[in-house]
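Support reply, case 0932

Customer input (verbatim):
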Amino acid sequence: MEKDMEENRKDYVEYMVEEAQRLLAIDSPSGYTKKAAEYLCGVYREMGYEPRLTVKGGVLVKLCEGACPPKAGETPASVEMGADPSQGPILLMAHTDTLGAMVSGITAEGRLKLTPLGGLNPNNTEAENCRIITRSGKIYTGTFQLANASIHVNREFNDKKRGYDSMEVLLDELAENADDVKKLGIMTGDIVCFDPRTVVTPSGYIKSRFLDDKLSTAILLGYARYLKEEGITPARTIYQHITVFEEVGHGACASVPEDVTELLSVDMGCVGDGLSCTERQVSICSKDSHGPYHYDVVSSLIDAAQKAGVDYAVDVYPYYGSDADAALDAGIDARHGLIGPGVYASHGYERSHRDGVKNTFELLKAYLG
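Our regenerated output:
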């Protein structure tokens, strides 16, 4: 019995997959993340940490004071005077905000027009079930469809370009005109959340909307649990910040602790044409659309992966921006890097694998010591 308990206690990958499923079940498009943040605070507290909510609504927590803390008064500015930034405090970042939409208008026929929150693509959300959350807290369901969606009626169905001007939400309520919709309490500005449709297959594949970035948020929870349960004190001070506005570009623009010298985004790794990463690997990003990641950080991540026998890939992401990019854009003086489990069909119905989770976790362990 004791052996079984010990094995269960150390099955961190299973824990991370389960936490991802719990997070995915909590609607949290950008701008509507309070419930997800509250859940995360509760998980951290159960582990014995002391998380706090940032003013913007993210979750910031200090995991440990490093075994080799900086000297009193040492800040990132002192790097210029000879301090080694690779030994300074590090901020690990993931984001729990997801893509979603907002009601932008009500048609004369009682349908809802939407505007996206983040890069939600209409081509990837046609015929998807969704929830409309009113300002009073009442929730209605509906389906996002092409206008005039019956193929037996609409001869232009196949040729019609999918876009927010040509698509609409059909409410699962008797709503035949705009007044009917307004009587339900639905109005412009209401949040629209799409079903994640989460599935974990026996072969280890994890399929869901919004793996970006709830899967890596769960990985950070697993790493926090690992440090606490194993009683490990790394050489560096480690913070975690779960941001809530990454999908709209300013998740990590604030709330970076003053002493931090390095930023490491743990987000989704890209999988697709021209890239080498698979869903079973951890991806190390060397450059994205904002430019190169810090050369020494990328080199150190590669070195750590090689020494630990982690299955990894190094790639350039052509159309991508991370929380680390946002922090640097905001003027934070720190080195930066980006890693994450390989995710296929990003911003659509995404897919990763338990092995990608494991390899990301193992790289964090190897890199942070």
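We compared this against your earlier run and they match. Two observations from our side: Residues 158 and 295 are 47 Å apart (CA to CA). The helical segments are 2-9, 12-24, 34-47, 178-183, 211-230, 295-308, 323-329, 354-368. Please reopen the case if you see a mismatch on your end.
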